Amino acid sequence: MSTLEIRDLHVSVADKAILTGVNLTVRSGQTHAIMGPNGSGKSTLAYAIAGHPKYTVTGGEVLLDGEDLLSMSVDERARAGLFLAMQYPVEVPGVSVSNFLRSAVTAVRGEAPKLREFTKELKTGMDNLSIDAAFAQRNLNEGFSGGEKKRHEILQLELLKPKIAVLDETDSGLDVDALRVVSEGINRFRGSGDTGVLLITHYTRILRYVKPDFVHVFAGGRIVEEGGPELADRLEAEGYERYAKALA
Amino acid sequence: MGLETKPLSTLHEKSSFDLADFEVPTGREEEWRFTPLPRLRGLHNGKAPASGHVVVEVDAAPEVTVETVGRDDPRIGTAYVPRDRVSAQAYSAFEKATVLTVPAQAVASRTTTLTLRGRGQGAAYGHIVVRLEPMAEAVLVLDHRGSAVYADNVEFVVGDGATLKVVSLQDWDDDAVHVSHHHAQLGRDATFRSFVVTLGGDLVRLSPSVSYTAPGGDADLTGLYFVDAGQHLEHRLLVDHSVPNCRSNVEYKGALQGEDAHAVWIGDVIIRVEAEGTDTYEYNRNLILTDGARADSVPNLEILTGEVAGAGHASASGRLDDEHIFYLQARGIPYDEARRLVIRGFFAQVIEKIEIEEIRQRVLAAVEAELEK
Ligand SMILES: Nc1ncnc2c1ncn2[C@@H]1O[C@H](COP(=O)(O)OP(=O)(O)O)[C@@H](O)[C@H]1O
Ligand SMILES: [Mg+2]
What we know:
Chain A is an alpha/beta fold. Chain A has helices at residues 42-50, 74-80, 97-109, 115-128, 146-160, 176-191, 229-238, 241-247; strands at residues 3-13, 16-27, 31-35, 55-64, 67-68, 82-85, 164-168, 196-201, 214-219, 222-227. The termini of chain B are far apart. In chain B, a hairpin with an 8-residue loop joins strand 1 (4-5) and strand 2. The interface between A and B is medium-sized, with 29 and 24 residues. Chain B: It holds the Pfam family SUFBD_core. Chain B: One of its GO terms (biological process) is iron-sulfur cluster assembly.
């Protein structure tokens, strides 16, 4: 049983205040959707939790099972059980996918997996996500299509088995088939144990495959409305204009 | 033999066997402005008598003839004429030269290794000639080790249709000074592959150059260097396209770390009026890992003909990318390991080009050792 608590979080980028007091608690077994217009600060929330150096926390706290995440380095947060699937995974030249995945799994599990078992685990994971075997030899995210990048993020999610996963627009740029494959991956992860998911999205379509328990509307750097799955349906029908007006 | 000038290009101004044709550099000259002259220990001003020793050991493939010859051997100086003061100094001061010959059509059955081992105090001068007769093939390693103040000239004469692959490792002790010219002269349809790895030494200034005597020559020059605190590692490339339809590709990558680590890369390519159909590309990238390190990277492409197949250059020096490190750390990989992975990745493409497994492993291990520092 794990809990991610975000309390009154304020974050700036380049001295500009972006998050203006975010409160949110994600428990294992729950899926929270954060929905909001472009530029509302959703990725800022994700990066700040993960510890990206560009984002400065100016107030509030983030706790994972009571531990202060904000005082940890980026890699310590990941080893503590946090995972961020990125909206724009970066290309890292010369580092192969297989080498990267083995290093990550070794770091998070605290010991190197047995080569034979890891090879099998990797193959199963890649098959599940319809990722070609040749992929393992390619350089990390280099020349990957949008869909390949997102599938690769979910492959990491399934291998690293975090306590809490933050998925930042994992659905964007995917065609219907890829969206289904990626959603199945997220659902396998949700079904695999005591894990919590914070699903950030601009559109409602992924919520048809990955059913949220809670929906939070994000605007102007904070949560402006909360509800159950029905809130997503309303957003589908009405869009975000209402909130833009409310903020103006 | 007197002064030979090719006034049409500003990148290659003069060549001469006569030391007197070269003034003692002051450091203001374009070709010397990056080099800290006092650290040359007299190699540039005649104040370094040949009192030291660099011992040459040869482990040759059976097809390769090895000779140690005197200054008057007619095979010396046929391909290369010294281009700067230190090169002319080395030419006028060496006593014995090593000549390797691969006979026509012979394919060397294994790698030939020349180990040049410095034995401490005093300057030493050397000369090496490697001759591949038509259609011959060979792989050569020049392995520089130990401590030395050493200036030398190396001539690679690659005959028609021949293929020569050379790895030159500058793996000197920390106090070594090495100034060297490697010149390859390519015959018709000859292939030359050079792989330079410079890791050790207080100051290394290596000038690889290529010229072509007939169409169809193909030169590929790859380099890797890792500069630590206080080291000055300088590579000055010159490819002189003077005949039609030849190809050259230059790719050098370096990493720098520590106070006063200094890398210099000069990439001069001349495409002369006659050299129609030339295809050339040169590339240098520097990864600056700490404050206090400096990389100077200067590509010069001089095109004197209107008819080239391709000509380009790229040069960039930068820091480790925060986004790369963040991505790896976000997957639990600790900072130091993330950094190592990214730096290894930076060098991976060039290291893969080393065809000799043993040398590739040695270079990989050397890079790993640098990363541990
Ligand atoms: N690295 C950055 N530098 C400058 N401004 C940024 C940076 N990242 C985000 N911002 C700004 O912060 C605001 C929120 O951006 P973001 O968190 O990416 O929103 P969302 O993910 O909801 O689209 C935007 O106004 C954006 O321009
Ligand atoms: Mg975003």
